[in-house]
Amino acid sequence: MRAPRFAAVLGWTWQDLRNRGQRLRFDTVTTGRICDGNETSRLTVARTFPQVGGRILSRCLSEWPIELTDTSALDRPDDPEVSIVIGVRGTGRLPQFRSCLASLGGQRGIRFEIIVVEQSWEREFEPLVPRHVRYLHQQAISPGMPFNRSWALNAGVRLARAPIVILHDADMIVPMDFARAITDRIDQGLDAVRLPRFIFYLDEMTSASIQSTRRFPDALCVDNVVSNNRTPVAVRREAYFAIGGHDEAFFGWGAEDDEFMDRLRTLKLGEGAFLPIVHLWHVEAQKQDARRNVALLSERRAMQMAQRIESLVRRKWGREAPVSPSENEGAAREKTDPNSVPQP
Predict the structure, then answer these.
(1) Rounded Cα–Cα distance for residues 84 and 201 (Å)
(2) Mean predicted confidence (pLDDT) in 76-93
(3) Is residue 178 part of a domain?
(4) Who's near 24: CB < 8 A, 6+ residues apart?
(5) How many domains does the chain have?
(6) Domain-embedded: residue 225
(7) Radius of gyration of the chain (CA)
(8) Distance between CA atoms of 214 and 209, rounded to whole angstroms?
(9) How far apart, in whole angstroms, are the C-alpha atoms of residue 279 and residue 27?
(10) CB 234 within 8 A of CB 195
(11) Which residues pair with 91 in a beta bridge?
(12) Segments forming the whole domain that contains residue 156
């Protein structure tokens, strides 16, 4: 951090920062780092000394600058090289969403399209998305239906026109070379690639400043620096179809990305994450169906991988609305749910 040129001579970069006890391996294809172990983790030094997280982010931004662009003049390309898919519901995080689109609009050196899938009872985002963004309304089966991220992403990938899709989150902003760097790596013979080496979770005031001014302040306050995250992720569209897309039996938040990563590993996956990504502060969402999702993940992992993939490929995912089983319906409802994966 204090002598980056000297560190470079030794072959060290910000990507090599890690917690004590963690092991990193260099990925020769992605030039990123593979972190042994599957769990996400927070960088201890940044958690203990908050100012260090801001210094690390400043160092990353010098290498991977972020530009929040006025997107009003952008047009949709006829032949995009990459499709960026975002699932949304509710306008409570509209400032974060707009900043996310502004950072995606700042991509350079590549033809890209953005697809926003609003999964909701009413159309709230349709008048809010810029003209260069493709919009799809995914009708919820009831006003109280929990958000199903898998269903939204599946529908977005079906709509995508590019050979590579990036599955993104509406509260994250990314570097200007985000999409170009991803396609360059996938073009080296990969089917998919893990993206964030670190996700920098900004504090409330820093996030508000960025959202209002469209630039990064000199002093960056970072609440947490997280490594080994499953999302965002990029994959060839045909490979996404081949492994069955996302499992729509997962509702609420959590575990669907772990299950998807399991199946991604049957492909040529670039495990070495290499990008800094910035997460904008918002009130933490309550995790719905968390216990059910954890139990469902265990059930899926008890199945043979070939069976998991085959059963998902057969489904009309991304089209027919999945049915949300309630907490007290138990296994009997699972057996009658037409969107559930058969149990082993």
Answers:
(1) 21
(2) 96
(3) yes
(4) 15, 16, 18, 33, 34, 35, 36
(5) 1
(6) no
(7) 20
(8) 8
(9) 25
(10) yes
(11) none
(12) 82-196+230-323
178-206 pLDDT per residue, tens: 999 999 999 999 999 999 999 999 999 99
Tokens linked to 312: 């998902």
Tens digits of residue pLDDT in 238-265: 999 999 999 999 998 789 999 999 999 9
CATH code, domain carrying 101: 3.90.550.10
Q: What amino acid occupies position 310?
A: E
Query: Nearest-CA neighbor of 161 among 111, 125, 119?
Result: 111
Quick check: 282 and 170 in contact, CB under 8 A? no
Domain membership flag for residue 44: no
Count of positions (residues) in the chain: 344
> Which residue in 122, 142, 93 sits closest to 251, CA to CA?
142
Q: In the prediction, which pLDDT does 324 show?
A: 62
Could you tell me where the DSSP H helices lie in the chain?
4-9, 44-48, 50-63, 94-105, 149-159, 178-186, 204-213, 237-242, 256-264, 290-301, 305-314, 330-336
In angstroms, the CA 155 to CA 302 distance is: 27
Of residues 329, 89, 325, 59, the one with CA closest to residue 197: 59
Q: Which two tokens stand for residue 237?
A: 């569209």
Tokens read off for 293: 């999702």
Model pLDDT for residues 296-311, shown as the tens digit of each residue: 999 999 999 999 999 9
